[in-house]
From TrEMBL:
<dbReference type="GO" id="GO:0032259">
    <property type="term" value="P:methylation"/>
</dbReference>
<dbReference type="InterPro" id="IPR029063">
    <property type="entry name" value="SAM-dependent_MTases_sf"/>
</dbReference>
<dbReference type="InterPro" id="IPR013216">
    <property type="entry name" value="Methyltransf_11"/>
</dbReference>
<keyword id="KW-0808">Transferase</keyword>
<protein>
    <submittedName>
        <fullName>Methyltransferase domain-containing protein</fullName>
    </submittedName>
</protein>
<dbReference type="GO" id="GO:0008757">
    <property type="term" value="F:S-adenosylmethionine-dependent methyltransferase activity"/>
</dbReference>
<dbReference type="InterPro" id="IPR050508">
    <property type="entry name" value="Methyltransf_Superfamily"/>
</dbReference>
<dbReference type="Pfam" id="PF08241">
    <property type="entry name" value="Methyltransf_11"/>
</dbReference>
<keyword id="KW-0489">Methyltransferase</keyword>
<feature type="domain" description="Methyltransferase type 11">
    <location>
        <begin position="50"/>
        <end position="148"/>
    </location>
</feature>
Length: 272
């Protein structure tokens, strides 16, 4: 039986609505920089794409906005997201997508079907990322490319002025995810995991967002209070420490030169 890993929409945050808003903010925060890399590594109009762990469909929406003639298959294990993304994309008027309710560990898709695979913020939640990568390798055409994007919580939000208490929050987050079988510091391991999964010609990038460039509202939207509150409820973080983070955050924002940055890690591999 497949282990569930460290992402369950019903339990990761204080509410599902908070979580969906956070995922939307997280797409918007990085999109301009991230999308440039997707294009650099072969995404273009007309391609057949598989997006696994597609969640509410916000990444799919961005791709369909820019490339109306791609065909995207969304693969999602969580029925709530299968329903949400189907409705969301249909109501936005998109047609060239289909959604299957499967796990990345066994998609049941045919061999050699897709030009591009996108797997964003999923590997970090899986107990067995190498076998997940092998499944992606299987469904790509020879010459196809897979783009994996993940966090490494050694480096998450950093601010000027520095907020030392943020470290406590991220260590609590990591303990919670590790306890569920995830790996929130997987970013640094991605090239090695891709190689073990069969990929060649591997590239590695970091994708950055800075409050002065993208605006600080997107940072607020993509962080939110839902996950920290849940960490307190689950006993991974004390309410006293969370209160200190809130005070530190408010003080940081009062500094007229304040800055907020965050990064994601992208690894790309080719099926030879
Ligand atoms: C952090 S969310 C990221 C959603 C989306 N990729 C994004 O970047 O906004 C992780 C997603 O992976 C899905 N997921 C978790 N385990 C999965 C699995 N074994 N197979 C397929 N999807 C899975 C979750 O339900 C969720 O939609």
């Amino acid at each position: 039986m497949e282990q569930q890993g460290s992402y369950q929409v019903n339990t990761i945050s204080a509410s599902i609505e908070n979580e969906i808003n956070r995922l939307k903010g997280q797409v918007e925060l990085f999109w301009d920089n991230e999308f440039k890399h997707y294009i650099e590594y072969g995404l273009e109009d007309g391609k057949s794409i598989v997006e696994i762990g597609s969640g509410p469909g916000f990444v799919t929406e961005k791709i369909l906005q820019s490339f109306p003639n791609v065909q995207i298959t969304l693969v999602e294990r969580e029925p709530l997201f299968v329903d949400y993304s189907g409705k969301y994309l249909s109501e936005a008027g998109y047609e060239n997508f289909d959604i299957i309710n499967k796990s990345i560990m066994n998609t049941e898709l045919p061999d050699n079907k897709f030009d591009i695979a996108i797997i964003r913020l999923l590997l970090e939640h899986l107990p067995d990322p190498v076998n997940a990568v092998k499944e992606i390798y299987r469904v790509l055409k020879p010459g196809g490319k897979a783009i994996f994007v993940d966090n490494d919580f050694e480096m998450h939000i950093m601010t000027y002025p520095h907020i030392p208490e943020l470290r406590d929050l991220y260590e609590a987050y990591c303990s919670s995810r590790y306890a569920e079988g995830g790996n929130p510091k997987i970013g640094r391991e991605l090239p090695y995991i891709l190689k073990k999964g069969g990929f060649s010609n591997i590239y590695f990038e970091s994708i950055n967002a800075h409050s002065e460039v993208v605006g600080e509202d997107l940072f607020f939207k993509s962080e939110g209070i839902g996950i920290p509150v849940k960490l307190v409820q689950d006993g991974f973080l004390s309410s006293k420490k969370l209160a200190k983070v809130s005070v530190g955050w408010r003080n940081m924002l009062k500094n007229e030169n304040h800055s907020i940055i965050r990064q994601l890690y992208m690894a790309v591999g080719e099926k030879m």
